């Protein structure tokens, strides 16, 4: 219903284009997809940034794309259309499928970019049949306190997914962080938390069963 009633601000934005991507992301995913014999070692040399055990970060989108994307989301937020919750943990958010981003954007992103990357990084989680679905959504956090359209943080949890890619579209946060712990079910005598600070357009990829949370220090 929302997709039919919503008047898009920037209709071309709903069709994925390689110009949206950072050159590093194109290089990484091209290696995974087109190299005759891509290896984990070769891929990790290109990524070079491991935030925690098998948690990797790299540029995904350009700053320009992030600005246009946020403009579209702000345009939707100002509309009178209903806005639901993307999951059971966040109070608010936007399911991108409701706006019409699946057909020509997210499905292609999953199949042509995320799938080959995930298959090389996490073959045991991706499986021979690949990633069969996705649930792409936006969540907004506000360090000053929760509102009717934002959350203030997120307690330690794991995702209902084989693989998660989390990309920051907005401002860089100096007063908050994403943190990673151990894998679900792993017990260690001295558990550690590994912080990750968001940067605009940069993504962090991890296994869905990896414990994580979000905390602000305002």
Automatic annotation (TrEMBL):
<dbReference type="Pfam" id="PF25238">
    <property type="entry name" value="OGFOD2-like"/>
</dbReference>
<dbReference type="GO" id="GO:0031418">
    <property type="term" value="F:L-ascorbic acid binding"/>
</dbReference>
<protein>
    <recommendedName>
        <fullName>Fe2OG dioxygenase domain-containing protein</fullName>
    </recommendedName>
</protein>
<keyword id="KW-0847">Vitamin C</keyword>
């Amino acid at each position: 219903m929302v997709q039919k009633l919503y008047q898009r601000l920037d209709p071309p934005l709903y069709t994925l284009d390689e110009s949206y991507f950072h050159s590093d992301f194109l290089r990484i995913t091209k290696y995974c997809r087109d190299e005759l014999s891509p290896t984990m070692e070769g891929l990790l040399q290109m990524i070079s940034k491991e935030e925690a055990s098998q948690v990797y970060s790299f540029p995904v989108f350009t700053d320009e794309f992030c600005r246009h994307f946020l403009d579209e989301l702000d345009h939707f937020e100002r509309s009178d259309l209903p806005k639901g919750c993307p999951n059971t943990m966040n109070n608010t958010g936007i399911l991108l499928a409701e706006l019409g981003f699946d057909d020509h954007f997210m499905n292609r992103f999953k199949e042509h970019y995320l799938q080959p990357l995930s298959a090389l990084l996490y073959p045991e989680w991706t499986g021979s049949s690949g990633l069969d679905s996705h649930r792409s959504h936006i969540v907004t956090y506000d360090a000053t306190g929760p509102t009717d359209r934002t959350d203030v943080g997120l307690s330690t949890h794991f995702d209902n997914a084989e693989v998660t890619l989390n990309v920051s579209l907005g401002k860089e946060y100096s007063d908050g962080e994403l943190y990673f712990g151990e894998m679900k079910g792993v017990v260690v005598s001295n558990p550690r938390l590994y912080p990750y600070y968001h940067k605009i357009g940069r993504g962090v990829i991890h296994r869905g069963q990896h414990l994580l949370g979000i905390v602000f220090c305002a």
